[in-house]
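Friendly challenge for the regulars: who can give me the structure tokens for this chain first? No prize, just bragging rights.
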Amino acid sequence: MQRSSRQKMIIKALGRQPISVEALSELTGASAVTIRRDLTELQGHGLVRRVHGGAVAVDLRGAPLPYELRAAENADGKQSIAHLIGGLVGDDMSIILDNGSTMDVVARALAGRRVTTLCMSLRAAVEMSAEPGPVVITPGGPVQFPSLRSGSAASLAALSDFRADLAVMGACSVNPSQGLTVTTHEDAQIKRAIIAASSRVVLAATGDKLTRTSTFRFGVIEDLDDLVTTSEAPPELLDEFVAAGVRVHVAR
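First reply, four minutes later:
Bragging rights claimed.
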């Protein structure tokens, strides 16, 4: 990708905290429409992350980000993913719902459904319990602030006694050659156990995550049955998932 001088200015200005479109427009002298177009193009190449009203810098190693920042980024894409996943879930299924900001949105979309769900975080459990219908189970034990996900000991114990028709998982980074990766060893252990406990594994990941990798691998793409992603996912990478036998669903 040949970047313009304006796009280089945008990349240089971004940090771990969001910068608004208005601020980038003032910095570069370009219109808000042009800045949004630049951000969309840069995100498509894995160079920035869009968040509500602006953007943040990308850490290509997927370093941990504050929960509030993760929850805000690509909010529309997560909503689209959650809606699509709702169509993959049938009544009376047993489900494992992973931890993470995308999973919290998925839980909200599944509220009221007649399913039995083991939620790996209290945030997801609260979202799913907002309406009558589902049976919601949590691992118990201490939770980690601010994500409110269960600790590894309680999570692994709960997963050893649960058999799921379908697991909905997240990842910090997804790459056909590097596999499914996260930023902590503990999270990788839990995700391996989720895969082992499930008959069908669905990975929910916005398209920007397909251009990065993180430190701890918990699986390979052949462990997946389905990938639910967004339109900014590079088509050539999606072709590799399809070649590995993964059903690819692109949320619009």
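The longest helix spans residues 32-44. The CA atoms of residues 60 and 212 lie 5 Å apart. Your move, everyone else.
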